[in-house]
Specification:
single chain, 221 residues, mainly beta, Rossmann fold, eight-stranded mixed sheet, six-stranded parallel sheet, 25 strands, globular
Length: 221
Amino acid sequence: MTVSTGTNPGNNPKMLIVIGAGGHAKVILDILFESNVGSYVAGAIDNTPTTIGNALGKTKIIGDDSILSTVLPAQYQFIVAIGNNEVRSTLFKTWKGSGFSAISSIHPKSTVSDSVSIGEGTAIMAGAVINCDSVIGDNVIINTNATVDHDVKIGSHAHIAPGSHLAGRISVGEGAFIGTGATILPGIEIGAWAVIGAGSTVTRDVLPNRTVWGVPAKLQN
């Protein structure tokens, strides 16, 4: 497995800021602590003023987005722990554009082939399987018990939801969302920012920015 620079605080003793404070952030924090990098977590940030100072898992909410102007890339790195693809993409680009590196969060109970390439800021949850020669972009979510078979390419900021299954040689575009329990047949191309409904079976290519669902999946207005 090849993981981009900035994914292991143990090799680079920067503190880590978790961006987000919802349910997805709690899962990311669990992974970080189970991966023995929890001691590097400085805290989480959230834009709800009343939450600042509250506990979040084994850490605390330490501020809001304005913290970006008070910390230095030489001392801190980040992970965006927000499920919404558009919001996650925007925040990732903002922090990267300010010179910060992103850490990936890979659950120790996931299964990832040694030949897989993983970008920065990507989250791989418990029970996920990623098979040989697949390429995962930056800031991607491979959620709980999702499977990604051989030679799959997943663009940055995409989200492969829990229990979904991608067969071999699939291409998933930037920002696409594959819903819970969906199945994508071999060789299919899913366009950028497309949405695949939960439980769908995709048997043909999906153009960018389209929403499909059903068995077989069909275009929805």
